Amino acid sequence: MERYYDVIIVGSGVAGCFTALHLPSDTKILMITKGDIDESDSFLAQGGICVLKDDSDYDSFFEDTLRAGHYENRKASVDMMIRSSRSVIEELMEDGVEFATKDGELIYTREGAHSTNRILYHEDVTGKEITSKLVAKVQKLPNVTLRTHTQMIDILCRDNICDGVVVRDEETGDLIPVFAGNVMWACGGIGGIYENSTNFPILTGDALAISILHHITLEHINYVQIHPTVLYSKKHERRFLISESVRGEGALLRDKDGNRFVNELLPRDLLSKAIYEQMEKDGTEHVWLDLTAITKVDVKERFPNIVKHCLEEGYDVTKDWIPVVPAQHYFMGGVFVDQHSHTSMRHLYAAGEVSCNGVHGANRLASNSLLESLVFAKTAALYMTEHPDDEEYQGTVRIPGSSLQGFSLFGDMDAGPAEDAEGPERSAGTAHIYDEKGYLTAAQAPTVDELSAIYELTPDEYRDADLYAQKNKARIWNEIHNEERRQKEIKNKRYN
Ligand SMILES: Cc1cc2nc3c(=O)[nH]c(=O)nc-3n(C[C@H](O)[C@H](O)[C@H](O)COP(=O)(O)OP(=O)(O)OC[C@H]3O[C@@H](n4cnc5c(N)ncnc54)[C@H](O)[C@@H]3O)c2cc1C
User: Fold this and answer.
1) Across the beta sheet with 224-231, what order do the strands follow?
2) Mean pLDDT score of the chain, rounded to an integer?
3) Does the beta carbon of 85 sit less than 6 angstroms from any atom of ligand 1?
4) Which of 99, 210, 482, 491 could make an S-S bridge to 120, C-beta 3.0–4.6 Å?
5) Which atom of ligand 1 is nearest the CA belonging to 42?
6) Is 327 close to ligand 1, i.e. is its CB under 6 Å away?
7) Domains in the chain: how many in total?
8) Which tens digits make up the pLDDT trace of 95-125?
9) Whether 198 and 339 share a structural domain
10) 356 in contact with ligand 1, CB cutoff 6 A
11) What does the angle CA 414 – CA 416 – CA 418 come to, to the nearest 5 degrees?
12) In CATH, what number is assigned to the domain containing residue 99?
C-alpha cells in the first residue's frame, strides 16, 4: 500500500466494485475492506434485483417505490434509479452475471409490495452471483490495489475537505494515513451494532461514527428496516434470511394455531409490525412460515439455498413449517449525498447502503438496494471523472508539511503540478519525499501521530480496537435516539 492514491474506495461490495470499474483505467485506486473479500452484504442478497422491464412499467415501479417509502423518497433519485436500471443490468450481463431465463428470455419474479413481476434473480443467491463476478473483474484491474482486513478508522479532513483516510492493518496493528484526491465510502450498513441482524457483524457503521465526529451531514439515521422473516434461532449469530420472494411465490404465515393472520405481501415495516403483534398475542417467540403452500414453482429448484440451510437446522421445508421472526436488515438512512453521490464534505463521496440519496424514503422496496447501490456508485465514478475542474468538489490535493499544492487529479498527470504550485524540483528541501509523479513515497510519509494535531486525530483511541468499536456504537445509537426524539417533537408540535 502506497501513501497517495487518486481515489480511495472503502468497501468491496457492489457499490465499491462498481465505483472502481467505472473510473478511468489510469486512476490510481486503493480499495480497502474490513474483513475477507466475500464478507460484504452484497454477497448475501438472495431475492434479486429490480429492473424496468419495459417503459409501460415506469409509473407502477415509481409508485411502488414511493408507496413502500411512505412518500418520503427523493423523487429525482427514484427516477434516476429506474431510468438507469436497464443499462446497469445489461452491463452486469456483459460482465458475465447470469439471471434466470426460460426459453432464452429473462424471468421476472415478484416480492412484497411490488404490484407486478420486475425482479431478476439467480436461484436464491443473486447477490453472490453479481458480487463475485464484479470482484473478479476488479481483482484483474492493474490500477487497483485491493487490501482486505484493512479498516478505515478515521478520515484526514480540514476545513470541510477530505484529504484521505487513516487505516488500521488488522495483521500488524499499524495505523497508516493514506492521502487521496477523492474518497469513496462504500462501506455498507449498520447491522453489526444490533443483537439480531441479517447483516455481517463487521458492518458497524464506521463511516457514520466518523461523520458524527466531523460534522458530515447525515439523513434519516433512524430509518432502519426490520426484515419480517428470518429463521428463528436461540444462537447469537448472523440471522439467516428467508427471502421475500418465498412469500411472493405463495408461502403463507401462520400463527401458533396454524391460522393465517396477515396479508403476506404487505410492505416490510407493516408486515413486521403485524408479526410482532401476533407474537405478543400468542405469547410466542416466533410465528410459522409454510412453504408447503407453494404450488406454482418447485421449491427445491427455486430456493435451493434456503432449502439446504433449513435442512441443516432440522427443517424439511417440503413437509415442515419453519419458525420465523423479524430482525434488523437494512438501513435506509445514512450519509447524506446529492444526485452525484457527493457528501456534505468536499472530496468525499458515498454510495450503497452507507449513503442516503433518498431513493428508499422511510422504507425500502424489496430488491431495490442492489440496483440503487450500483446506479449511484456509477454516478459518483462518472462525476469524479467528468468534472475534473469542478472547484466545488475537486480542488487540490493537500499534503501537510509539503509545498506541493494545486495537483490536478484527472488532468494531465505527466504535466506535473499546476503552474502556481511549487513542484518537487522547486522545493529542494522536500524533493526527496515525492516520486516522479509527485506522489508521496512510503519511507518519508508522515505518521498518524505526526498528523494528529493538524487533523485532530486520536491515535490512542484507534489503537484499542474494542474501545474504538464501543465508542462508535455509542455515538451511532445516541444519534439514532436524538433523531427519533427530534421527530417526535416535530409531530407533537404539528398536532398541538
Ligand atoms: C441477507 C440479506 C439479503 C439481501 N437481499 C437483497 C436482495 O435480494 N436484493 C437487494 O436489492 N438487496 C438485498 N439486500 C441488501 C443488499 O445486499 C445491500 O444493501 C447491498 O449489497 C449493499 O451493498 P454495499 O456495497 O453498499 O455494502 P456491502 O456489500 O455491505 O459492503 C460493505 C463493504 O464495506 C466494508 N467496510 C465496512 N466498514 C469498513 C471500514 N471501516 N473499513 C474498511 N472497509 C469497511 C466491508 O468490509 C464491505 O466490504 C440483502 C441484504 C442482506 C443482509
Assistant:
1) 224-231, 322-331, 287-290, 252-254
2) 88
3) no
4) 99
5) 21
6) no
7) 2
8) 999 999 999 999 998 887 889 999 999 998 9
9) yes
10) no
11) 135
12) 3.50.50.60
